[in-house]
Amino acid sequence: MLKIQVLGSGCDKCKKLAANVKIASERLDLPCKIEKVEDINQITASGVMMTPALMVNGKVVSSGKV
Question: pTM to 2 decimals?
Answer without folding.
Answer: 0.91
